[in-house]
Amino acid sequence: MKRQIIHIDEEKCDGCGLCVPNCAEGAIQIIDGKAKLIKDEYCDGLGACLGHCPQDALKIIEREAPEFDEEAAMEFVRNLEENKITVQDVIKSEEKKSEKPIFSGGCPGSRMRTLKQESTASKPEEAGSGDIFFSLKPQLQQWPVQLSLVPVKAPYFQNADLLITADCVPFAYPDYHPRLLKGKKVVVGCPKLDDLSYYIEKLTAIVRENELNSITVAFMEVPCCNGIVYAAEQAVSASGKNLTINKVRITLEGLKQDL
Question: Does domain 155-258 have CATH number 3.40.50?
Fold first, then answer.
């Protein structure tokens, strides 16, 4: 039968994952660094996910597709939430039916990778001259730091330089304290694991209710981390404030790239 169904332009998609939480049926998932429609029967074709893609990679088209199966879609979502099934289970099931691979790989943000670091330490618990050159002074100026925990009108936000940090950044970037955190107030979060709409709402309130001097966003090079940049941009826009966002991307090798 011909019906309306979601179409994803993979050329435009950067794998940020913002569409995933906005598909209540779980039909869209990030696979091999791109948003994919994992099963036609899970898409109702109503387009609730539209408008949540910063790359405009989603649209509704009409094509031959199996009928929407609401019961199966909701069961899939429940099983995902209860950890009874994974997206890969569905893929394997579909591959078994078609006897050919459907998708491969996974999100670059969660892909396993070993990073080689040169070290002169004689024992794992000892630091050699190749590991530490000087003792760093901590630059954290407030607590808490998690975006979900900080008060919107915390006094330390007034006239502050705000650093919005994806929570993997301090692990990957060795100079995080002296070159990013110094002199700033910070909020930390993960755009892949947490509710991005809540992040936008919370950041909007922080920007609107406080007189900030500047905003810096530090994020990882993996595509899903772009979500925290998007949240900051949406928050500044919704707040009505005229603030420029300084964007700093950190590579998996620990290099800092000012954008």
Answer: yes
Torsion of CA 105, 106, 110, 115, to 10 degrees: 20
pLDDT digits (tens, 9 = 90+) for 109-143: 555 455 565 554 445 555 555 655 566 788 999 99
In angstroms, rounded to a whole number, what is the distance separating the alpha carbons of residues 217 and 238?
17
Q: What is the number of alpha carbons within 13 Å of residue 224 lying toward its C-beta? A: 26
pLDDT at residue 100 greater than cutoff 70 = no
CA–CA distance, 31 with 107 (Å, rounded to integer): 5
The dotted CATH code for 2-107 is 3.30.70.20
CA-to-CA distance for 156 and 162, rounded, in angstroms?
A: 10
Give the residue range(s) of CATH 3.30.70.20 domains in the chain. Answer: 2-107
- Tens-place pLDDT, residues 103-112: 655 555 555 4
Q: pTM score, two decimals?
A: 0.60
CA distance 202 to 150: 9
Intervals of CATH 3.40.50 along the chain: 155-258
> Does position 232 have pLDDT exceeding 60, yes or no?
yes
